[in-house]
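U., I forgot to send this yesterday:
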Amino acid sequence: YYVQNRTVVNYDEISEHVLAALVATEDVRFFSHHGIDYKSLVRVFFRTVLMGDRRGGGGSTITQQLAKNVYGRQQYPYFTILITKLREILIASELEDMYSKAEILELYLNTVPFGENIFGVEAASRRFFQKSSSNLNIQEAATIVGMLKANTYYNPKNHPDRSLGRRNVVLGLMAGNGSIRVDELDSLTAMPLQISYKREDQNPGAAPYFREYLRRHLKELLPKISDSLGRSYNLYTDGLKIYTTLDSRLQSYAEKAVNRHMRDLQNSFDDHWKGREKPWEADDNILEKILLQTSAYQSLQERAVSRDSIEMLIRQKREMEIYSWKGKESVQMSTMDSLLFYLKFLNTGVLSVEPASGQIKAWVGGINYRFFKYDHVNKNSKRQVGSIFKPIVYASALEQNISPCSYIDAEQKKFVENEEEWQPANADSNYDGKYSFEGALTESVNTVSVKVLEQAGIKTTVRLAHDLGIDSDIPEVPSIALGTPSISLTEMVHAFCVFTNQGKQVAPYFITKIEDGDGNIIWERQHTKPRQVLTSHTSQMMIEMLKTVVNEGTGMRLRNTYKLPNDIAGKTGTTQSNADGWFMAITPKLVTGVWVGGEYPSIHFRTTALGQGANMALPIYALYQQQINKDSKFRSVSQARFPTPPAGILSELDCDPFKEDVNFWESLFGTKEERDARREERKTYSKKPVPKKKEKGFFKGLRRLFKKEE
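Result:
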């Protein structure tokens, strides 16, 4: 974290060409004076002070310029220039007494500004040539030093012709004082200007969303530390070391998974809407809301520009750099065009937590931090959670000692919510049969989930959700069984950690300790005792049921498409109109949550096949886990297995996931043709095949024994 982009280097780490160019250009008598060049002062007095001509330069030595860089300049009521020069002369004289010439050059080259909020020759060298200042050649050194006359005017990226001319002037001065041979001058000045520009700022690098969240957190934490220790600490200037829980390899794998899947998903989304009117572009409320938040609009308002003028200005086209999955592009676009362009992008959030400790291991807040600053992992970022809320409902029912083999019919039922009748529907419009808890969770049957909530109790379920680590408001209405509450990704990952942590809740955290510049620990995380919020019995049952979701239900793509062999329990989630796609993955040592969606709910796929969590969010986790599996250093994570549950738990879950609506008399005496006809009728009515009955124990062996050869 920094206010200014500055990297300090030692004198012997700076190219001799830079030192020669600096002295030749800025202070040719540097090694012979004691901080003040009296010949230059006479020129300044007559030309600048008496004649008011500032074009001739200030006549300041390098030492005087160092005084200005370090201590700044002030304005005085009278004789500002004269007082300023006298002040800098006094400081320069003191500096010459205290430091050697080499130390003064080192101090100067580490403090001098080069524009673009970069200070010092090392930062400038890396910005414009992507190399250390020790490796600059003669012409590169001349280019860097040439900027000191006017760093914006002679910026080699923005004004290459001016920079080339100034570079050649510096080379001429170097030849004049013998730093380079005269016979070299022609060949050097004939060389074209070549730069390798790379802007180093807070946008690129690992975990930029996390780093920004951490920065905001530290701005609140450091004053408390300062108060407790009686000493002030500054995040930007005190050289603090902040130790976090993030694992750089897991972070890299998560970011790669996001880049790979979201690129393909965006292409699919663009093709899906190609040639069609996009509802979000026609929504004036969205456009106005976004426009009011832009810095351009706010700046115009502050300047009291009329609304008509603002309307005209935001529609004026200008050159701007925009984001695309193919790379950055420079285009002619207005502010309004830009808003519409960025609305089409799908975004994501990914969070991985070690459930036993609560350590956050990977945090991806979006697809590109430079262009999309909004962090979708941040606890304040909330979206409807859809079916990933259902495990909480079933866990609540199990905690009330309701048997997981209690069969609940899938028939529609009306509920009263907010004084109005409401009737849940299933995604496949199929309302036949009865489901066990495992069957309903595996197939994500909405009508059954609401009835389970009714049995468990709405208040009880909401209370459990809060105990699991969800702080967001959850209304006490039947529709919460389908995930209508808006909850953050962080909270949902927190809750799912409890299932694999034997029912214990551990708060996620991301800082372990903070040291000052001398290596002294000024803050360290205090260990907190886990809180039992679910019985171990319930948590193990939930893991077994959520394993079935992955092995046989809506999460099967992990096995069929991505061939993941890991022990995984999980849950997909899709909200109304496919606005949000979710996937929650539980492994014994890592819990990962993924959300994918548009900036606003109106930005979505038109079909559930494309917009469901299994298609939007699940692949990111799959690609992430594939990379973990290939890394031998993560064998303890990838090869971890859930503990085998006690026989009693397996016995409680030992029931068919689904029963057809056939009464006992018909099932016992009906003919085979009648049973087959009923089955075909049901298949025709349903949009998906009848769920296969899970045969276990004795009956499974009996079926294998008498199975006909095909």
